Amino acid sequence: MTIIDEAISTSPPLTITAPTRPVGLVRDLIALIRPYQWVKNLLVVPLALLDPAALRAGPLFAVGWAVLGFILASSAVYIINDIADRHRDRVHPKKRLRPIASGRVPVPLAYAYGALVSAALVAVVLGGPAIAWWPLGVYLVLNVAYTRGLKHVPLVDVFVVALGFVLRVVQGYLAAEVPVQSWLLIAVFAVCLLMILGKRRHEVGAGGLAHRPSLRGYSSQYLEYLIVLCAVLAISAFLFHLNTAVPPPYTTVALLGSVPFALFGLARYLQVVVVETSGGEPVRVLLRDRAMLINSTLWAALIGSTLFAAH
């Protein structure tokens, strides 16, 4: 008997019901592509706009088009993942309520929906401005491999997900036609890895092996070590980026001003993950935690005003 079979046999019975009203079905189809997760693309892809050379009509439109492309690509990935994970999701106390796992969206309909979203993605890639779309292609290939097995390999699973965010940033730079900032990419990779590790730490105590077999390779203490390591790398890389991106005499202001905001943000996230054990959904933490929102707003105002004054 496999881990999944054993967990399913011992878990509470789940009533699988098909949607009875068109309004409910539409709501489930919208939930299936996770609109609340689209902010990942809105925050990561346009990082290229920090370069003043990108603040023109053409690059702005191209970056917006790249955001749309990644929204559709990530939506298609969510549908594919939910189809593949529907059996494991049914043994998770929260994910068992997802549209496909609960049976409200039939699997054939989910496949058709995924094909429709994929067709829209192809239309965006072929019908938009001339952009090098190879980061999006690599993102899709990685996620197919992730769904088919990489998600079950400890460490590999979190690195693949974090790499997806780096590909978003690269796509933004290619769309804006500005040079890629290597230190910023390292900082993005470290921050994203930190948040994914925080999510895994939450799952170690809540999900169980039946939901995510890769958790067998983690423990709470081990994940905390990795989170601290990524936090140090993220702060260091971002400070190196500011040191090269902000010209003097504004460099000192940007560096010294960023340190307390960066440390507070990471400390607050660690508090959420370790003390409050609420790191299961990093996007919701970033968008709903008042301390994080205030800290991020003040930090963005500092960096924005410094860059504006410098250029």
From TrEMBL:
Chief localisation class: membrane
GO molecular function, a single term: glycosyltransferase activity
Keyword field: Glycosyltransferase, Membrane, Transferase, Transmembrane, Transmembrane helix
Subcellular location: Membrane
Top-level taxonomic group: Bacteria
Membrane topology term: Multi-pass membrane protein
Parts of the chain that traverse the membrane: 60-84, 105-125, 131-148, 155-174, 180-197, 222-242, 248-270, 291-310
Pfam families per UniProt: UbiA
Entry keyword Cell membrane: no
Protein name per its UniProtKB record: Decaprenyl-phosphate phosphoribosyltransferase
Organism: Luedemannella flava
Phylogenetic lineage: Bacteria, Bacillati, Actinomycetota, Actinomycetes, Micromonosporales
